[in-house]
Amino acid sequence: MRYIFALIAWLCPLMGAAEEWEDQNAFGPAAATTTLRVLSSTDTALFAPIIEDFLRSRPAVSVEYLVTGTAQIDEVFRAAPDEFDVVISSAMDLQLKLVNDGYSVPIETLSQPDWAQWRNSLFAFTTEPATIVINRVAFAPEAVPQTRQELIAAMRARPEVFRGKVGTYDVRKSGLGYLFATQDARASETFWRLMEVMGGLDARLYCCSGEMIDDLVSGDLMVAYNVLGSYVAAREDVAETLEIVLPSDFPTTMMRTAFVSSRTDVEAEAAAFVRHLVEVQTGPRNPDVFPLPPLSAAVDSAGQAVISLGPALMTYLDPLKRKRFIKEWSSAVIQ
Amino acid sequence: MSDTVNVAGSLRARLALTLIGSAAAIAVLLFFVVRTYAAQIAQSGQDNILEASVTSILDAATLRDGDVEVDFPYVAFSMLNTEADDRVFYAIWQDETLLSGYELLPVADAPDGGEIVHVSAQFDGASVRVATAARILVGANARNRVTVSVAQTQDALAGTLNKISRNVGLIGAGFFALSVLVASWATNTTIRPLERLTHSITRRGPKDLSPVARPVPLEMAPFVTSLNSFMARLDTSLKQSEDFIAEAAHRVRTPLATVRSHAEATLQRVEREDNRQALRSMVRAIDESSRAAGQLLDHAMITFRADHLETEPLDLVELVDDLVTRLAPVAEMKDIALTVVSEGVVMVEADSILLQNALRNLVENALKYAPGESEITLEVFATPQPRVEVRDEGPGFPPDQIQGLAARFSRGENAKDTIGSGLGLTIAQDVATAHGGEMTLTNLPEGGACVTFLL
Q1: Could you tell me if A315 lies within 8 Å of chain B, comparing CB atoms?
Q2: What b/e sequence results for B341-379 when a residue is b if at least 16 CB atoms lie within 10 Å of its CB, and e otherwise?
Q3: Size of interface A-B (CB pairs under 8 A)
Q4: Is the pLDDT of residue B206 over 90?
Q5: What residues pair up with B150 in beta bridges, in sequence order?
Q6: pLDDT digits (tens, 9 = 90+) for B321-372
Q7: Are B437 and B455 in contact (CB under 8 A)?
Q8: CB pair distance less than 8 Å for B124 and A101
Q9: Which residue has the higher pLDDT, B95 or B292?
Q10: Which of B76, B85, B92 sits opposite A315 (nearest CB)?
Q11: How confident is the model at residue B398 (pLDDT cuts 50, 70, 90)?
Q12: Beta-bridge mates of residue B136
């Protein structure tokens, strides 16, 4: 059944896609006996080296890598959990809730520290801070703001430079954006003031980090808030134009997580894939080959605490809480 | 004397088993009681956290413009973080409508006052503990009943319980091991006075029938009292039988001797041949009775004395010489020569009366069966063991009966014409055995019997 589905998925682009994938790639031999379907929110370019490394010692396995937004992952996977073997996403809250709701199987042979796994099913494999990315043009003579407060001050001081040129995630569409926003709101009231100031400057709203970076490079955006710095660092063409600022007042750091679907037919291969992923990301490796940021300790030297994996992440996924948060956020940002 | 005692069970084993058995029972009981208690405490710990979570959610419920809003704090779920990453489920109901959470979560009926109800249930393939509470929100034109349930799986609890079970199990096993040590110590201490009494009685001399004097535990007092009185009675009865033997020997032998002398006197006076013949038969019968009575008394005395040997150092050769001197007249009457062969002095540790008796019986036996004008040899050896050989030139023992001849009242087939009670060899054998020696019967190759009396 699954293979038929895989075949249909292969043929879909030719016949007019039924599923709107942002990206879809097949790795490994076409004649492979086992195909792993990986549902992911991570750009293929960042992930391809890991997949190729995984397939190198497994000639009978192929991987179909399907990319979509974090919110869509939750939707698509809940609708058909038997169609995917591994789910990878940066929206920790949605991932945790999927595991909590019984959509995963534990990988008994993989042992990770407590902060980097949940129920031995959900495994973190990167630590990535949310950053402020700035187009150097906007701050040519002035000092680059290092905190949210300084950013607010800079935007208030020169609204003509920033009007229509500030951007952030649309928390209604992006799962990761919602996670960052709710964690920011939990940490400080500054978040709401920043949202109000950005809303006053006609903030542009995005679904994904990639588009924000594109607009920053083209000059359509001067400041983007809560962008994944790793995506900027991975692009070689932007180093001259853009600067990544790690807000020093309080950081928000997320971990990309992966789990094996409880409905998979190829549990052994799927578990091997997640194990390989975690091993690559935690072991010594060449960053030129594997561009994803590694999994570092829960608190790094800069005192950055990662969002912890625990049932509390389900709080803002509660429909009542979400409705209330979106309402508040909308009234701040969409004025 | 060395009869095996009829043994049924063992006090030591029974005591040890009782102590160890009850220790095991207590250890098992301890395990279950502590485990149950620990389970209750662990469960109440989880219940408390669920209760706090439910309360914090329920407290956040407000009515705004007629709508129920539940802006519950982050901590409502973060407090449910456990070591085992337990799954968390919740449901928020407004009257019969699900506001948010898991619709299928089993919800208990909770009173309106905010009192919390705990139940255990199954949800999504896992056993969960559910806490439920309800609250009435009174609005402008409606009463809304908000019910909040929070559930958590019990993996961490099971882990804790396993840990507790393991520890309690170890404590129980330790307690049991200690109990076994204490039980074996207690058993030995309890049994020791009994062993001491046994030891002191075993060590006693053959004639010591005095009461047990050393202190014994209270529980053994009745037994020792009975033992003492039993030994006193035994002592008395032994003395009596000793007296009886002496008395009986005297009373039977004396009148027989009188009757015999009368018969002999009468024999001198009667002339008729058939009367003389009758009297001779009578004398012969009296002799037989007298000898039988003597041997019976000898045997009785030996049986008694064998249990209470009174040994003393004595010269075996001297004893044999004495015996020969005393029996010489009888031998002479039959024209039999009694010869003693010896090499100096052979000292033995023995009861002289018994030894005399035994050897006399052997020689009398030989005298009885030996033909006239023959020789009976008594040879005394010192090595390898002190022994006396009595050899005659008679018909010898019937070869097919040689094994059973020493049994009481057994007589050889060729002895029908000879006076005898069948007790002679038995007496000699008993004496040899009582001294730790033995007696063997053989036939000499040149004819005649040989009895070897070994000490």
Answers
A1: yes
A2: ebeeebebebbeebbbbbbbbbbbbbbbbbeeeeebbbb
A3: 59
A4: no
A5: B90, B131
A6: 888 888 888 888 888 888 888 888 888 888 888 888 888 888 888 888 888 8
A7: yes
A8: yes
A9: B95
A10: B76
A11: confident
A12: B145
The residue ranges of DSSP E strands in A154-266, in sequence order, are: 166-169, 204-206, 223-228, 242-245, 253-254, 257-261
> CB-based contact (8 Å) between B85 and chain A?
yes
Note the ipTM here.
0.88
Q: Distance between CA atoms of B331 and B166, rounded to whole angstroms? A: 95
Q: Determine the pLDDT at residue A14.
A: 42
pLDDT tens across B164-197, in order?
899 999 999 999 999 999 999 999 998 898 888 8
Per-residue pLDDT, B444: 85
Q: Which residues pair with B130 in a beta bridge?
A: B119, B151
Find residue B348's DSSP bridge partners. Answer: B314
CB contact under 8 A, B125 and A321: no
Q: CB–CB of B88 and A321 under 8 A?
A: no
* Rounded-to-integer distance, Cα B296 and Cα B292, Å: 6
Check A320 against B71: CB less than 8 A apart: yes
Q: Does B81 touch chain A (CB under 8 A)?
A: yes
Cα–Cα dist B151/B59, whole Å: 17
pLDDT of residue A12: 43
Work out the number of other CB atoms within 10 angstroms of the CB of residue B128: 22
Q: Can you give the pLDDT at residue A259?
A: 97
Which architecture does CATH list for B310-455?
Answer: 2-Layer Sandwich (3.30)
Q: What is the amino acid identity at position B443?
A: N
B72: contact with A, CB 8 A cutoff: yes
Query: Rounded to two decimals, what is the model's pTM?
Result: 0.69
The answer to whether A320 contacts B81, with C-beta atoms less than 8 Å apart, is no
Cβ atoms within 10 Å of B447's Cβ, excluding its own: 11
Q: Which of the residues in chain A have pLDDT under 50?
A: 1, 7-18
- Please provide residue B389's backbone torsions phi and psi, each rounded to the nearest 5 degrees: -110, 130
Portion 118-137 of A in contact with B at CB < 8 A: 118-120
- Where do the domains of chain B lie? 15-162, 210-308, 310-455
Q: Smallest Cβ distance to B85: which of A118, A318, A324?
A: A118
Grouping H, G, I as helix, E, B as strand and the rest as coil, residue B321 is: helix
Q: Are strands A253-254 and A204-206 parallel, antiparallel or unpaired?
A: unpaired
Q: Identify all chain A residues contacting B77, using CB atoms and an 8 Å cutoff.
A: 310-315
Which member of A102, A186, A320 has the closest CB to residue B74?
A186
Taking the Cβ of residue B91 and every Cβ of chain A, the question of whether any pair is shorter than 8 Å is answered with no
Answer yes or no: do B100 and A310 touch at CB < 8 A.
no
Place of tokens 């007092």: B221
Q: What share of chain B is helix, strand, coil (3-state, %, to 5)?
A: 55, 20, 30
Which domains are assigned to chain A?
Answer: 2-127+255-304 (3.40.190.10), 129-253+315-333 (3.40.190.10)
pLDDT of residue A9: 46
Preceding omega of B111 cis (within 30 degrees of 0): no
Tell me the residues of chain A between 277 and 296 that have a Cβ less than 8 Å away from chain B.
Answer: none
